[in-house]
Amino acid sequence: MHELISQLLRLYLPAGAPVPEGLEQHLDGRMTRAFDLAHGGAVRAIVIPFDRQPQANGADPWERLCEAANALQGELGLPAPAVSISGAAGFRLWLSFQEPVPAAIAQEFLGQVVAAYCPGVALPQHGVLALVELPPCLNGATGKWAAFIHPGMGASFADEPALEMPPPPAAQAAFLQGLESISQEQFRHALAVLARGAGTAEAETQAATDAVAAPVPAVPAVPPGLLLKDATLEDIVRLLHARNIEPTFRHLLPPR
Fold this sequence. Notes:
- This protein has 256 residues and is of the alpha+beta class.
- It has helices spanning 2-11, 23-27, 61-74, 103-117, 169-177, 184-197, 201-210, 233-242; strands at residues 38-39, 42-51, 82-85, 90-102, 137-138, 145-149.
């Protein structure tokens, strides 16, 4: 159980916050409660539900999830998300961020992902700020278990995305151990790709600007008296890297 809690803290729960009260009892089935993935107006994770919906025109939730998961990785360049069964009639995709993302930006990202890759998905009323029942847990409506699963197992749960018995905590932890969170660079890239898909260059620029930017490193001080003519190639490259500029050195100096 300790390793499972560690993985949930690593991937989904607010960074630096204490272990939520009742988490262990929730995971072992003594109670079921919803947890807050947000802290200070920012979120560590996004959960996308794939339930059977009338507006989905009969499309299978598992097939829709697979299409979305493949697009997140193949088109947006994001790491593989976790997959869970709901204990009732659907599946969930779990996206984790290395650094908390402001809720407004995360909500805009979620809306763009749904519009582009899984239209018809019914999002919770409060969007990315909705409380979430972390797997594994008992589904209060069905009395069956929600749980993380290996993506290769998903088709076997297409008819009933639920477990009759509680899953072993060690196996649940193992499904999460190999997962990576979305880095700030990956997130900015995904926002830019989504903006290009919407056909708005202005939106692309704004998305990249508004995204949670990595702290800009301090530019190293130039030693007193160091003029450009005195700088070595290493000095110039180091200074450009500090300003997030990648030198190409493709240009040739004209002959004297």
